[in-house]
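Late entry, evening session. Most of the bench is empty. Finally got around to the prediction I had been postponing all week. Sequence below, unchanged from the version circulated by S.P.
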Amino acid sequence: MIRRNYIFPNIVTIMSMFAGFYSIVASLNDMFVAASYAILASFVFDGLDGKIARMLNATSEFGVQLDSLSDLIAFGVAPAVLIYKWLLIPYGRIGWMAAFLFVACGALRLARFNVQAGKVDSSFFIGLPIPAAAGVIASSVLFVKEFFGDPYFFSIPISFVFLIYVLAFLMVSNFPYYSFKKIEWLTIKPFNILVIFVLFIFLLGLYPQLMLFIFFIFFTLSGIVLKFLRLHSKKSTLAEHGSHKA
């Protein structure tokens, strides 16, 4: 039996699933901008359900599994259908295989996350989170709409297919991505927090499509940069130890 305080966070999760399903329907009807906004709405609901569950002390294994299924629909299937209908159809098998790979790697990413929950450092995600990968696709549509016109009439070379393969690879990679779960707010002065927040709202209000696109692209690249910084630091440490031994 599901206790009553478990119902509300699960309703929020189902709202995320609904937004993802609507995105699929919109994509099938060539309403690419509406499909993108629906994915971003799923992003908001997905961020709320876990916080509400913890606030109500209503976390459960049922909720975890429902959340994963919702994420696969909203951030796996929905963006794959969107990008396929928007850009990949002309490329035949290469196009639909890219869309399938995105879904498959997203499913693997979610399964690995569930298995590793509580066993790894929660400060970092292992591999690009599937909502962020979906955000790259959704924000790309909005970016094109804002600066190039109706996405329906926008064409792009086959090289863009490579980006879908990269996103799929990053989801199942071991690249670390900061989770923002352990932000040390107490080390930052409250006034500075307000200034940062106001500046963020100002830029988001002026250029929402551009800022969302930049945010998702930078976050996607951040894992690659962090991985190389760690490798460089490790090599420097080994070199230092080697020089001491010599």
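Two things to note before I forget:
The chain has a mean pLDDT of 85.
The longest helix spans residues 208-245.
Will write this up properly tomorrow.
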